[in-house]
Amino acid sequence: MASDTQRSDVASNANRLPSWLDGSLLTLVVGSSLVVLCGTLVQVSFGAFSMSIGQAWSAVFDPVVWSNPYVLLKFFFGEGIAETLATTFGLSVASVDLTKETLIVWNIRLPRVVVGALVGMNLAVSGAIFQAVTRNELASPYILGVSSGAGLAILLTLVVFSGFASFLPIFAALGGTVAFVIVYAIAWKNGTSPVRLVLAGVIVSTVFSSLQTAMYLLASDIGVVQSAIAWTTGSLTGTDWEQVRMILPWTLFVTVPLSIVASRQLNVLLLGEKTAKALGMSVERVRFALSGVAILAASAAISVAGIVGFVGLIVPHVVRNIVGSDYKRLVIGCLFAGPALMVAADVGARLALNPTQIPVGIVTGLVGGPYFLYLMRKKQQLGEL
Amino acid sequence: MTGDSIQRSEDAAQVNAERTDVERDDETPSETPCTHLRGEDLAIGYPTTEQPVVECERVDIPAGEVTALVGPNGSGKSTLLKAMAKQLDPDRGHVLLDGAAIRDLGTKELARRLGLLSQENEAPGSLTVEDLVYHGRYPHRSFFESVNDEDEQAVERALELAGVTHLRDEEVGNLSGGQKQLAWIAMVLAQDTDVLLLDEPTTYLDLHHQLRVMEVIRTLNSERDVTVAVVLHDIGQAARFADNLIAMKDGELYDWGPPRKVVSDELLRDVFRVDADVDADHPTGPHISPHRALDD
């Protein structure tokens, strides 16, 4: 008996160290990375300016770009910061001549892929967090009124306050946050509960959507309406390094680290409110803080791509089916699978009806709907986590 | 009734205190003293109810003993237990853990000293037993802290004590109801608390697992001096396994004390509304032979 226990001790220790990184998660990570890679390959190769795949890849790995840190810095940080950084580190700031192919790939095609990947990452993690907070598999980043709040803010900006159009991303994110706070306030009654949060989300969404529709009627210019539709369905058309600069810091310093750190809290929340409380968790505080992280992630995505639906709903689902419900693995899986879906969907959005580009949100919706139908048919129970 | 009750409770507490003192002196003199839980002047209600559901002047969960709360459905056992675990804030009165009001203790601090297993528990089906039990270490770990040796030892002890070591890699969703309950018990055991409150841990289990659960509780109490309060449906089981019974009726304490004293024909008639014979001298505790349900 004693030796038995000891043996199982040793075995468990050996299993424990890399226990969260097992075959299924590894497969998912590698597979997703491959999808992103292929998506990137396609995106940089095709477009209005045609070049061969070989040309496209030699442009991506153009030694002139990679050997000049200043050029890279300029892409990622913008001219001002890049120059400061370059001078502090004593790098050359001399301008270099880039070939036409390199310019097109680096200035137009590559940033769009990078933005898409970051949007996917944020939405997937946001959805994963909301599903744990509301203990509902059908929750999405937009469940707590975020999309309707952001949508209303977008329309208000475009239609009423058109002078502030350049602040649109910030207003969109703010609108989402405000709606979330209203939802929380409505749901609060001696504390909240997942069901009340979802119901309050439905209430706020309904009211805000009506207001949105009313706004459309006020718009006088068809261009404004088109722009509003692009924002409210989610689109990556015309994204640039500027968008990368907007979303990258949030992703690196908020979404990724906080979601990984929070995975243990999320796991305990999944045991139910009573158990979490009995284990000494301040459930309300944790739930609010986690929702805050998810809102920030969703807002970061909205601010560059508008309201892209279904990504935050499907990706956590797919990942959960593959790696199980442990949130450490789920979050890491989402960080890879989110970009994979988004980059792949954007290939379709950009190239399917070439030269017309459709909003990427339409593609994710077209993929997401049938996937849910499949899930509904296949799984007996869908809903509660 | 009330004055008499208080007197009786003080007597019982006195007796209990003496008894545990003696036991401790005999067995393990260096052991840290057991923890004692007491409710004073309690009125407990839910946000949705106007009147308190439970009212009692004083309730004692004596240190180092197993106390069973028994009573018919709706008598307030679970409500009282929830208030004792700070899951419900009483409208009036307070709960004292070794003399300190639990209201003033931090949530994690309380969870390190007092564990609670609720009646119904849900876990994601793909969670393994071992991972579930590791969650019991939550109150012992700070936000950024990872698993340390102490956590691992506590988990191993808990798995062994609950007898689920062989199930450690099984997914909770694939276990039988009884195994699942033992896994959850292992989780609260890993919490390593001085006081353990269990809400109907044997309901819905087959007889084998009911006895397994009760044996785990007894072992825990005798080996680690954990103070246990357990809500039980089966008064026969309560009489057999508990050191003390607290019988509740309509949100009030009806009687309390050692099973041989509390369990009587009268109790079964008044509280459970059952016509029964009680053999108080049975070797394994008072033995109940129920005959029929009494009309109102």
From TrEMBL, chain A:
InterPro entries listed in its UniProt record: ABC_BtuC-like, ABC_transptr_permease_BtuC
SUPFAM superfamilies listed in its UniProt record: ABC transporter involved in vitamin B12 uptake, BtuC (SSF81345)
Transmembrane regions listed in the UniProt entry: 25-49, 113-133, 139-161, 168-187, 199-219, 247-266, 286-315, 327-345, 357-376
Family: Belongs to the binding-protein-dependent transport system permease family. FecCD subfamily.
Membrane topology: Multi-pass membrane protein
Name by which UniProt lists this protein: Iron complex transport system permease protein
A GO molecular-function descriptor: transmembrane transporter activity
Annotated Gene Ontology cellular component terms: plasma membrane
Main location: membrane
Localisation per UniProt entry: Cell membrane
Record keywords: Cell membrane, Membrane, Transmembrane, Transmembrane helix, Transport
Highest taxon of source: Archaea
TrEMBL record, chain B:
Membrane topology term: Peripheral membrane protein
Protein location: Cell membrane
Region spans: Disordered: 1-33
Keyword Iron part of the UniProt annotation: yes
InterPro entries attached to this UniProt entry: AAA+_ATPase, ABC_transporter-like_ATP-bd, ABC_transporter-like_CS, P-loop_NTPase, Siderophore_ABC-ATPase
Keywords: ATP-binding, Cell membrane, Ion transport, Iron, Membrane, Nucleotide-binding, Transport
Catalytically driven reaction(s): an R-cob(III)alamin(out) + ATP + H2O = an R-cob(III)alamin(in) + ADP + phosphate + H(+)
GO function terms (MF aspect): ABC-type vitamin B12 transporter activity; ATP binding; ATP hydrolysis activity
PROSITE patterns given in the database record: ABC_TRANSPORTER_1, ABC_TRANSPORTER_2
A Pfam family the protein falls into: ABC_tran
SMART domains: AAA
Domain ABC transporter: 37-275
EC identifiers of the protein: 7.6.2.8
GO terms for cellular component: plasma membrane
A biological-process GO annotation: monoatomic ion transport
Subunit structure: The complex is composed of two ATP-binding proteins (BtuD), two transmembrane proteins (BtuC) and a solute-binding protein (BtuF).
Function of the protein: Required for corrinoid utilization. Probably part of the ABC transporter complex BtuCDF involved in cobalamin (vitamin B12) import. Probably responsible for energy coupling to the transport system.
Protein name: Cobalamin import ATP-binding protein BtuD
Source organism (scientific name): Halogranum rubrum
